[in-house]
Amino acid sequence: MKAFPSVVLACLLGTPLAADEALDQVRRLETRGEAKEARLLLQRAVQNSPNNVETLHAYAEFLEKHKDPEARSVYEKLLKLVAGNSSKAAEISRRLVLLDMIAGDTEAAARHLADYQAAGGNDLTLPKAQTAALENQATIEIPGPLHSFARMAALSPDLAPTDLLPALARNIVTSGYQASSGNEALEQTEYLKLVFRYLSQARELEKLAGPDKVIVIETCESTQTADLLRVLGFRMRGGCGAEVVLETVNATRAFLSMDSGFPIAELEQALRTNRLFKYDFRPTKIPILYGADYWLGGKDKQNVDFIDQFLSDPSLCRLYLGLAKLDRETAEVLRQHVPVQRIRAFAHVLDFFGGMFRIRGGKAFVPGEPRASAAWADLVGVSPDQGAAFYERLLVRDDGWLAGYYDALARIDGPVLEYLTEPARLKRFYGALRGRVTSPGPARPVFRSNTDLMLLTSRLRMDRDGKPHIPGGVEVWKNLFINHPHGKYDGKLTRAASSWKDVDDVLEALFALCRKAVENEPLKIYMALSDINRRRAVPLEASTIDRLAREYRRFGAQYSIFSEAPTLTDKTILQFMDAARDVDGIRNQMMKADVAGSFQALVGLWQIFTRQQVIPPASADAVLSEIITPFLQIRDQRQLFDGARAGVHALLRAAGTPPGASPQDRMIDLLAGTASPADPDAHQMLVSEMIRIFEAQRLVSLTTLFELADHLESVAAGEKLNPSLVSKLASRISEIQLPRSSLSSVEKNAYAAGYWTEKHVDEQRKLNLRALIDRSSRDPGKLKEARGLLAPILRDTLVGFNYIHYAPPGAQVLYTNPLFVRTHDFLGIQGSQQTWRATEVFGSGWPSNAGGRLVGSLASLPYALAEAEQNFLVPSREQALIWGDLVPQMILSAKVPRWWKVTPRQLRWVALHMRVAESALAEASLKPSLREKVLASFERYATPARVRNVADLLQRGDVHLAVEQVMPLELFLMGRDLVAGDIRNHWLPEIRQLASEAANEVSPEAISEAFGTPKPTLANSYHPELLYLRTFPTLMGYSSRIMAESWESNILYFAALAHDLHLPPSQMNLLVPEWTQKTVERIFATHLEDWPALLRSLRVVGDEVRATTRQMMAAEQKASLQ
Amino acid sequence: MKSIRNLWLVGAAAALAASSVLLFPGPLAAQDSQRPVFRVKVELVVLSFTVTDSKGRYINGLKPSDFRILEDGIVQKIATFAEGNKPPVQVLDDGSVRPLITAGTEDRAPADAFVGTNVFVLFDTSNYMYRGFVYASDAIADFVRGLDRADSIAVYTYSRNLSRAATLTRDRNQALLGLRKAVAGDDSALYNALLLTLRDAAKVPGRKVVIVFSNGPDNASMVAPDDVRAVAEDEGIPIYVISTSEVNKDPVSAGVFRRISSRTGGKAYFAKTWQKQVEAFESIREDLGNSYTVTYYPAMNPNEGFRKITVEIVSDPGKKYRVSARPGYRPRGGF
């Protein structure tokens, strides 16, 4: 346990410190990460000298820095104390105004602004209150309460009113209609049929509710009771009184009543007790863009409600969705200039690729402007100066290819944008992308099909010479296209490849391949190899790149291992490839699985140790090479055991294991993060958790296995057998059960899945080492061979270490299925060759099998484990509104990084930048001249519609809501931009001081390393890092996985939270998984791109943690101060 | 000053609160690791069973002395005994009994926890249940209303994920409110949800059962039915299953339902119609009201694997009565 700092102790003992002395000590404590003690010291100092301005000021600033709501009241006290000093009063009142605005307390802000102005401040003006406005906006009506409609239409009731109709439109587009058999027309899905049925029932209820729109049942016997129950589909069983029960009479109606959340139970209680039942059934007003008339056009507006027409017309919904994504100004210009019927035909293009459209002063923004403006005019056929006409033409060109190209380029900036938008290049690459036949366009499917294009443009890397990085050089790619290893990628490109000379030739081919609907292997190879080179000081040699490219299909999933360690040499990488090929050549399937499992598990452990830097970067290459070497020539189980054991020793040695240490204990210590933790309590908790899982999986400890192997050697040399050692293993093995299969033999044969894994388990159960030793007692050779029998058991232990390191929060599967590790299938179903492929979840949802298991290599184990666990999360509200792809990525972002090496300064750095951005947003609301600068920074990371939304909120003084709209990552980046831009801000001196005293800790690389997340898809690596990309949309082939990887806000938010609550960084190792689980369980999303739901959930969890921790802290500090 | 008796009661409550297992820092080292490891040993076993005659009629009024409990053939000493929803009694060394809840202690929460059964209803709201959703809800509502006053009820629903619609309560209205607000879902992860329900039930002191109301299929679970069954067996929680599917329509699910219920001391019902569902619930309610619950601390037994439990009725030498109990358990911890 941490020693209580002497200075605090002195203070607590009642030795009052001088104010300046106390402040010095506060700074020192903060630097050491002892913010809690610093706060206590300040509190005590303030208690001792309540009228000391300097101390009070320091205390207020401390609270403000830690986002403590008490900061405002302390500043108020300070303001009173400095009443006579106008410059000081101006400074304090100014801060108060900004804090009031951030807290959403406009009344206090007005009061403090008056103080500020009285003290001579004249640069801030409170925005005039504007009625935000539902009543000023056009609205439509939906019968009944919102929560009922939201339940039926699968909308989150947390959506902002303006987001309701777009969310509904999206649900209709994606889930409302399906192709009908033998008919070209679309037919309604069950989901939409239920929505219509609900609307019909709601209208009936609305009639019953009468002019007051309140359903009233005065007594059980009243006539309204029967009417209401008829509409609801229920009837009374038993006469009125205590025995009355409501039961279903019309299943269809009753289903709607229940599913829409009509208060049936409350009604039943009211009838039973003969009490008044009242239910507000007022219709819900929902804001609509431009008013209903715009959308209905010439349709009959009198007899049918808007909502019915809207739901009946998926193309109308698509158009609404597209226009709702535009910023207000752009949408208005388009509305005025383009008739609805004209734009409607291209609604799908607008929906997918219109999000970055921006018209300002009538002119359209184009990527790479002004240099590329003319080129865009040529491509589109209209000048960007004619904003509306330009975008209209962009939408109708080539079925969406040009719009997709525009969208991909509009999302990037910096040197890559500059390079790609060089006018000639812009046109050339567009030509390649578009091809000759434009149909089907990239906006046709349900998801955007320009995934590869977006990945290419956003992940392209520039070399120092200002040209795009081409791994291995042009020749490698030329050869790949000409002598393709698995059949032609593209006939035309193959022909053209022979004349390639320049990087642009390769790039053009990659752009051309982006239009292909089939899997784009060359682009994947390019991305994977670029990512390997990305962090390397010296790129891989052309020959290595050539081999990696050619063997991508077979071993590509393993390349993320090479991306993670930039110090790997070409030799070791090639050695890995050789070993992998050798393993593939093993004919005995059981042996192959054991060798592959042991090899991959050791490499996985090396990867973990390298990532956690328990193996120094300088020795990473040598250690991997040492692990690989024995696997180059494995012929039997004994060699396998010896090779795997040598690998374990290599790992432990490289991690500085002292001689004589228990390999098992040491391995667990290192897996928990570090062998000598600064926070032993937190480390011990992680270690205990890992041991529990190890035990639940009935794995055999490394120490037992190695001792047994040594003992067999000794027995072979004539020593006496140690029966207790042998029975230790036998007793452990007796705990291994065969998979608890519920299948009959016939059914088992029919499914026939998992044969080899079952055999692997069965062989272990049958192992009788004692009998074998007895049988071989006269043959030392056989006794030596006997240790080969331990090889499959050692494999499971090594694989198990990987599993327990990445075990997701809860780890229900690992605790419940004791064979989960042992049944990892390294071979896959016969013929599927999954030994080196990505890890996949297999066999879930069969009541008759032995439970789900993982198949394939261990390369993407963290994601697969998270995927297997995600359905065990319990949503805190209605179920099934959290979604796959995003959740596993969130879980692995909380489990792969470890925060043992993160420093308190790094936490402070993140929090201070967020504070800068928050106060800048508040100031921008009160100072229009600053607004442009702040929004310009925001615009670098957010879509035009979001920027406009925040601008509107700032303009009307709703800073609290504006800050809520900005993601934590964006806040941090805005803070960084504003600091770099020398904006006037009271946190600037402290940030500069941090930068000067700990430049290495707060460098962009260090912050990225500390608070980054793994991005196996975007960056082909599990190495945690921050890429600072705009949040991606959902993309074909990846659903929301890439979007989830581009979401980098969680860890930064949690880092700031840890700072604010004075938690040491080491605690993040325990708390981030817990906070992440809570965040997932509180997500209430409407659709796959509903990341604002995630943001809301993150803030709710943060607020809860803040409230509970502060409550505990206050009680603790009160006790200390007394 | 606390009396010795009160201290014992607190101790017993704590033992039950740990749901039949206690975690203790054992001297057991993890195999040969140098680090001490906390392993779980079964400390108190809760065993519920029913006794019926040859015609299936419940036999009531039996005393602790009428029973002999054996684990792997080793006779066990009964610690507490309860019949139906009557308060449990402590069984003394000489075979006599005395009330576990004495006058003046009835209102204490820990002691109160021994009275009645904690019933966890797990309701399938997946797409598979779509058509029968409302009738199922009615049948569950009737069951909730008809429960003994001493019983507590929790209503959970599941689809792809679990939802705790109403947490454990004695307030029937709360349970009905939760039940009637259930939302129809999509995929079905029955065994995942059942596992989580068992984990929740295991944390509750006293007697508990889980009632699964399902259509049968599971297309999203990661855990196998028999791994979940093993958890129920070890925790001593009977699982009752009411399947709304016909036996021959889905023989695999039917087989699984039969096994997980019988192995845990529960029953499986195949009730496609609303009427049959109501009857099934009625039968469960009868089981709850007519069952015996004993607790005991297992006698020394070297078997760390599956321990077979036998309940003998010493007052029935002719073996006319039939005992329905879980066949045994594996001494391992819950998580």
Question: Could you walk me through the main structural features you see in this protein, from its secondary elements to its overall organization?
Answer:
The complex is a heterodimer of chains A (1122) and B (335). In chain A, helix 26 (474-482) crosses helix 27 (491-497) and helix 49 packs across helix 53. Among the domains of chain A are: 6-118, Tetratricopeptide repeat domain (Serine Threonine Protein Phosphatase 5, Tetratricopeptide repeat, Alpha Horseshoe), CATH 1.25.40.10; 139-287, no CATH class; 586-872, no CATH class; 895-1121, no CATH class. Chain A has 1122 residues and is mainly α. In chain A, strand 9 (359-360) and strand 10 form a beta hairpin. Chain A has 59 helices and 14 strands. The model of chain A is unreliable at 1-14 and 739-752 (pLDDT under 50). Chain A is 59% helix and 5% strand. In chain A, strands 1-8 form a two-stranded antiparallel sheet. In chain A, strands 2-3 form a two-stranded antiparallel sheet. In chain A, strands 4-7 form a two-stranded antiparallel sheet. By secondary structure, chain B is α+β, with helices and mostly antiparallel strands. Chain B has 2 domains: 4-113 and 290-329, no CATH class; 117-289, Rossmann fold. Chain B has 8 helices and 18 strands. In chain B, the strands form 4 sheets. Chain B has a 6-stranded antiparallel beta sheet. In chain B, helix 3 packs antiparallel against helix 4, helix 5 packs parallel to helix 6 (225-235) and helix 6 (225-235) runs parallel beside helix 7. Mean pLDDT of chain B is 80; it is low at 1-30, 36-42 and 102-111. At the A-B interface, strand 6, helix 12, helix 13, helix 37 and helix 38 of A face helix 3, strand 11, helix 4, helix 5 and helix 6 of B.
